[in-house]
Amino acid sequence: MNTEERLEKLERELARAKRRNRWVVAVMALALIGGAYTLARTTQEVRASRFVITDDSGKVRALLSMTKDGPALNLYDETGKPRAALGAFKGGPELLLCDETGKTRALVGVDKTGPGLTLKDESGKPRVGLAVTKDGPRLVLADENGKTRVGLDAYKEGPALGLHDETGKMRVGLGALKDGPALSLLDGTGKPCAVLAADKDGSRLNLIDENGKARVGLGVGKYGPELLLCDETGKTRVGLDALKGGPGLSLFDQTGKMRAALSMVKDGVGLAVCDENEKPRAALGVDKDGPVLKLYDANGKRTWQAP
Fold it and tell me: In whole angstroms, what separates CA 14 from the centre of its chain?
């Protein structure tokens, strides 16, 4: 092969190399364009389990993360103390607001029972609670130990106010229910010991012993005032009333049967003594004509009278 032939061969090889280089450049250009297009599409959605935002000094001011209970957003002040947190957890969403020491002072949440708000003091004790449940709205005020001292509810039956002692036991209950208002005083075990109520039939006061038995009843009804004294079983043993016709006193046995009655009416006074069936067996009366005594049999038939 002479020199001229070698030059022609070299020129052909250079021409083929140029054609190959153009194909390589074209393929690389297409690849870059495709990559840029793919990147442009995927940057519309960013996936991560944690995002941190810092200030100019490098301190974390916001943290968005996925916890084991659910997503949470935490906000921090310039000292790094947590001041607010928002989360959507298994039990429901929550919003926390913190003071300058990082302690939670306000909590708003919604769970399966309903929405609620809790306000805490500087020691972290809950002092105010506001909630809406299936039974109705409720407001709770607590002391410095976190014990409930005041409870205000609006039930379906009516509003109610409860006052509690330092152990959390309710000692006073006030309600405006469907049948009428009522005030209850309770002992240290939470048992009622006095109840004052007013309904369509009048007003009344009941005093109750430690066993829950009513021992004294004082009331004013449509017929007049009445006082009842009861034994340890709750049975009425003494009744004193002032009716329209005049005052009266009744004595009852252990079964609740009236055995004696003393009354004062317009015409005079009278005393009746009854048997176990509450049938009068003797009656003594004094009127303008003088005293009279009557005796009766078991069937109520008068058997003797004097004068």
Answer: 92
Whether residue 105 contacts residue 83, with contact meaning beta carbons closer than 8 Å, is answered with no
**HEC secondary structure over 104-154:** EEEEEEEECCEEEEEEECCCCCEEEEEEEECCEEEEEEECCCCCEEEEEEE
For residue 32, being part of any structural domain is answered with: yes
* Residue 13 three-state SS: helix
Range of the domain at 38: 1-45
**Rounded distance, CA 306 to CA 291, Å?**
9
Whether 79 maps to a domain, the answer reads no
Over residues 43-96, the pLDDT tens digits come to 577 788 899 999 999 999 999 999 999 999 999 999 999 999 999 999 999 999
Query: Computed over its alpha carbons, how large is the radius of gyration of the chain?
Result: 45
Q: 180 forms bridges with which residues in the sheet? A: 177
* Reported pTM: 0.74
CATH of the domain at 260: 3.90.930.1
Does residue 25 fall inside a structural domain?
Answer: yes
pLDDT band with cut points at 50, 70 and 90 for residue 20 = low
Contact assessment for residue 105 and residue 98, using Cβ atoms and an 8 Å cutoff:
yes
Transcribe 23-43 into DSSP letters: HHHHHHHHHHHHHHHHHHHHT
Q: How many domains does the chain have?
A: 2
The answer as to whether 171 is a domain residue is: no
